[in-house]
Specification:
By secondary structure, the chain is an alpha+beta fold. It has 2 domains: 82 residues, NE0471 N-terminal domain-like, CATH 3.30.2020; 257 residues, Clavaminate synthase-like (Double-stranded beta-helix), CATH 3.60.130.10. It is 26% helix and 31% strand. It has 10 helices and 21 strands. A 6-stranded mixed beta sheet has the order 8-9-19-12-21-10. Strands 11-20-13-18 form a 4-stranded antiparallel beta sheet. The radius of gyration is 24 Å and the shape is globular.
Length: 355
């Protein structure tokens, strides 16, 4: 059964079980702790609830239920949640040239201003990339910057980490060879959300070492257009990623392209050619053909923003969307950074009313 809410000239049916389950009166909801009050018996009774009477007037919906309980709702609150209306920043899918030009550049000195922090966060939500200038090239200053957004995420690599051409961990990023663009930590059950990079020191006589980033959402869009079957395969076929070093062995299975079942939109790319475990995917031939096609798109020149990280400039990107790589290099190349969990980043975005 439903209640018909009239909004302008439109009647919107709202399920009555959902309405009763989401009553916000003081008997049903604890507003101090932002938590429902319920018992097993109360919840089971909700399944068979009926409406005795209801009225809608002046943006209020009042319901008298068959068990005598009364509920009052703001109509707009009901409609916005039921129809999933919300403040939303649509991703702007980018070729490499656009990744270079469109993301916001915010001065570190202005991050204490709410509007500047919102500009940085909005850039990450919209383009997958945010850039902060005028940062002291130290790990301490980088951490201070990060904490304007959220606390750094501790992983096997530490909380704040430094990467150079030395073997701190059993990971190819600690070597000086080229890196194909990839997403980090595909072997975690929840991949790290944001990645923070800040170059500290670069050998003036060193060669190479250019950073490369690609918009994975744009690449997925192109794959779907060029070969819908290949796109579908990478949303369905699960592959296993793993990371092994003394004392740690991480594994996680999932598709390369993750789709939100509610919106049917891509919400995560988990592409890492290095961290794939030997466990064969369920449809081997289909997987390899689709994976190779996606890699070929990611490697196209027009997809890539190739740039040189510089001391004083911090780049933050969405690891669920942006793939990063590197050309080979000679000489000393030391940079630092950290991860921020997607959970913490989205929490901050909600506090700033960006999503």
């Amino acid at each position: 059964m439903t209640v018909q809410l009239k909004i302008g000239n439109e009647n919107i049916p709202i399920n009555i079980i959902w309405l009763r389950d989401n009553c916000r009166c003081s008997e049903c909801y604890d507003h101090d702790y932002n938590s429902r009050k319920t018992t097993t018996q109360q919840f089971l009774k909700t399944i068979n609830i009926k409406i005795q009477d209801y009225t809608q007037a002046d943006n209020n919906l009042c319901i008298k239920w068959s068990d005598g309980h009364k509920s009052e709702y703001h109509t707009k609150w009901v409609i916005d949640i039921w129809t999933r209306k919300k403040i939303k920043i649509e991703p702007n899918l980018c070729f490499g040239e656009e990744l270079e030009k469109l993301p916001s550049k915010v001065s570190y000195n202005n991050l204490t201003l709410k509007e500047c922090l919102k500009e940085l966060m909005e850039s990450i939500l919209k383009y997958g990339v945010g850039i902060i200038t005028n940062v002291e090239p130290t790990l301490e200053a980088t951490e201070k910057l990060v904490r304007f957004i959220a606390q750094p995420q501790e992983t096997v690599f530490g909380t704040m980490w430094t990467v150079g051409n030395h073997k701190n961990h059993k990971d190819p990023s600690y070597l000086n060879g080229p890196l194909i663009v990839h997403n980090d930590s595909t072997y975690f059950n929840e991949s790290t959300g944001l990645q923070v990079f800040h170059m500290f020191e670069r050998d003036i006589n060193g060669k190479g070492g250019f950073s490369t980033i690609v918009d994975g959402f744009k690449a997925a869009e192109i794959l779907k257009k060029e070969n819908p079957s290949h796109f579908k395969n990478l949303t369905e076929i699960e592959i296993e990623s793993e990371y092994i070093e003394p004392g740690f062995h991480y594994k996680c299975k999932g598709p390369v392209i993750k789709i939100d079942p509610t919106t049917n939109e891509v919400y995560q790319i988990r592409f890492n050619i290095y961290d794939r475990s030997p466990l064969p995917p369920s449809r081997v031939n289909e997987f390899y053909k689709s994976y190779a096609h996606f890699l070929e798109i990611l490697e196209r020149e027009e997809m890539c923003w190739k740039h040189c990280l510089k001391p004083g400039t911090v780049i933050i990107y969405n690891n669920w969307r942006i793939l990063h790589g590197r050309t080979s290099f000679t000489g000393k190349r030391i940079f630092g950074g950290c991860y921020i969990s997607m959970t913490e980043f989205l929490s901050k975005a909600r506090i700033l009313q960006l999503i």
